[in-house]
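Lab notebook, bench 4. The sequencing result for the construct came back, and we need a structural model before the next group meeting so we can plan mutations. Quick request posted to the team channel:

Model the 3D structure of this chain.
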Amino acid sequence: MELNEIILTTAGSILFLFALALVVLLIRKDKPYLNAIWLILISFFMMGFSAISNAEVFGLFKYEKEKKLIELKELAEASEYCPDNYEIKTILNKKISEFETTEKAKTAEENAVLGYAHYVVGNDAKAIKYSKEALTKDSTNQKAKATIELANTKKIIEDPVLNKNKENFQIELNRKMKELENNPIIDPKQIDKLREDVNKRRQLIIESGQINQ
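Done. Here's the predicted structure in token form:
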């Protein structure tokens, strides 16, 4: 149970006891007590908020969350294949932040999509974290497995120590790329994108004088 749920449940319990005592007092004094009934109803809502927020009331909560998840996935895919589109990446970062703030990734699919979105914006640590969480809920989730493999490969590409040693870097990179190519869950386009990243990064390092061409 989250902290806000604990607070609401506690406050609801206190309000319920107060409202109940008030109703009893009003009845004894033969005064109108119907208005006090509303306090009891409000207290029930507060105590049951956790169950209500997690429930699929008429499918509305689930529908809204699925809409946000689909939007997040589509933005991540668009940003991955259009990496130079700053506008898409900005919107994606905003949607990731909103989803993490207003929603809680509970299912394997939700964690997998959030992990993939973090991978696309370059936050490999969170990408791996959410993807591993997805696999604890569903060990067969292909999206989560693919994200972990891709994020680990990107770590090699961005490793400053490996990059300084061209031979070791190439050996390690070739090994990892071969693994990705033989992995049926990895989209070939994602491998091509990683190769582009390698070339761009190597060129930047060469231009900066950190390594020789």
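The mean pLDDT is 81.
Will bring this to the meeting.
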